[in-house]
Design a protein that fits this description.
about 55% helix, about 400 residues, 3-stranded antiparallel sheet, binds protoporphyrin IX containing FE, 16 helices
């Protein structure tokens, strides 16, 4: 059956940066992209070694006894791991830090424009101009160069054919540089900032909740000690997984979202005087939804819904997770549910374990104001980040 809702103006809003890809397409084009990309999301063993390498790069930059803002390091970590999923192991990609950082800042700026365009609805085109277009051009050039190199490497005899990369899957269908760039950029946008924000909020919350931090460290000691964690070990860390769930509850990386009616339809509740009757949605009207607000509802999560309490996910044999349904939506749900969920939780869990193994004692810096959850200044672009970064004091 044809769906009643689509992405509305998103394609036009995002087009200058992202063009056509899974994140901007609807209908047949979207199904095709999803089928093409899906195989790359079955977690391959090689991925842990890449995550490990990117984690080591980050940890090398942490000096004991200093105060450090983890946030830019976390964005660079998820950039590396997502580039690996896209293009496979490419040392040049990882080591050319100058062009990588020019790319990262252009990508950030261009995304700010996309977020502001999105907020203007049908007037999105008012936010444009040469500066925006220049940032898009820097991003395009960086990805075009990697795509060109990766195509040559993939075709070379003796190249590593054992890793299924997103680009490898795409080149079986097309060698059009523009299509390849656009599909890859869509995944990069979906994968880099979302996971970096999860990690930023996680370290902020852990340093502000030392009892939770201690429990995570205990679990690490019991499960893998000082060794690098394996995938089964990471899966077994139920407390760490509850921490990640709880971070995404309070700070869902995609805190607001919307769909637009393709035809006149209705939603089952929201109408009538008490809001319990169906409500009409006319063709072309948009329905916004806000996981950030939903995840703080007391009727779903209890009177302490604004507290950071990972235990809520473990109580009563994990009843909350079984019953919460669409009340908890960090990765969306339905046919457009996030393709990268397993990968994101794997890399986030791995990095937290490795950082805490090397730096078990970390604190909120003495000069940081203590604020209640939700009172801190937040930065909303397409994703939600702490505006003040993620500063931690290392022992
Ligand atoms: C904590 C990390 C992550 C969160 C919270 C997250 C969340 C989401 C959400 C809410 C959507 C739905 C967007 C929409 O349809 O409007 C989505 C879609 C998507 N995500 Fe993630 N994501 C995360 C990590 C990743 C990673 C690491 C990747 C890839 C490397 C990825 C790839 C995708 C893709 C390809 C889609 C589009 C699915 C489709 O439209 O069919 N995500 N994600």
């Amino acid at each position: 059956m044809e769906p009643d809702f689509g992405l509305g103006e998103r394609r036009l809003v995002f087009r200058p940066l992202l063009g056509d890809g899974i994140f901007t397409q609807d209908g047949q084009a979207w199904s095709h992209s999803r089928a093409l990309l899906r195989p790359a999301f079955f977690i391959q063993e090689q991925i842990l070694s890449v995550i490990a390498r990117a984690a080591d790069d980050l940890i090398d930059q942490l000096q004991p006894g200093t105060c450090v803002d983890l946030q830019p390091l976390l964005f660079s970590f998820t950039l590396k791991t997502t580039l690996f999923m896209l293009f496979g192991s490419d040392d040049a990609t990882f080591s050319d830090s100058k062009s990588a950082s020019a790319f990262a800042s252009a990508f950030d700026e261009a995304q700010d424009y996309l977020a502001r365009r999105g907020r203007l609805g049908p007037l999105y085109w008012l936010i444009d101009g040469p500066h925006f277009r220049k940032q898009c051009a820097v991003v395009h050039k960086y990805i075009d160069d990697i795509v060109a190199k990766a195509i040559v490497t993939a075709a070379a005899p003796g190249g590593d054919k054992t890793v299924y990369t997103i680009l490898g899957g795409l080149v079986k269908e097309t060698t059009s540089p523009r299509i390849l760039r656009e599909q890859c950029l869509n995944v990069l946008l979906a994968g880099r900032d979302t996971t970096a924000c999860l990690l930023s909020w996680a370290f902020r919350l852990l340093t502000r909740h030392p009892v939770v931090l201690d429990k995570v460290k205990d679990e690490i000691s019991r499960t893998c000690g000082k060794s690098t964690p394996s995938r089964p070990e990471l899966k077994r860390m139920t407390y760490l997984n509850a921490v990640l769930k709880e971070v995404l509850r309070l700070y869902p990386s995609v805190p607001v979202n919307a769909r637009t009616a393709i035809r006149t339809t209705s939603l089952p509740v929201g109408g009538g005087a008490d809001g319990k009757m169906p409500i009409l949605v006319r063709k072309g009207e948009s329905v916004g939804y806000c996981p950030y607000a939903m995840h703080r509802r007391q009727d779903i999560f209890g009177h302490d819904s604004r507290s950071f309490r990972p235990e809520r996910w473990l109580e009563d044999g994990g009843r909350l997770a079984q019953t919460v349904g669409y009340g908890y939506l960090p990765f969306n749900a339905g046919p457009r549910t996030c393709l990268g969920q397993e990968f994101a939780l794997l890399e986030a869990g791995y990095l937290i374990v490795r950082i805490l193994q090397k730096h078990p004692v970390m604190d909120v810096p003495a000069d940081e104001a203590s604020e209640a959850i939700g009172d801190e200044i937040q930065k909303l672009t397409l994703v939600l980040a702490p505006a003040g970064g993620c500063r931690v004091q290392l022992a």
